[in-house]
Amino acid sequence: MPKAAILGLVIATGLAGCSNKGLRNVQQQGEGPDEFMVMPANPLSPPPSFTTLPPPTPGGANLADRDPIEEAVVSLGGRVPSASGGVPGSDAALVAAASRYGVPANARSVIQAEDDEFLARQQRWQGWRLVDRYDDVYRDQWLNSTAETERFRRSGVPVSSGPPAP
Question: What is the model's pTM?
Answer without folding.
Answer: 0.35
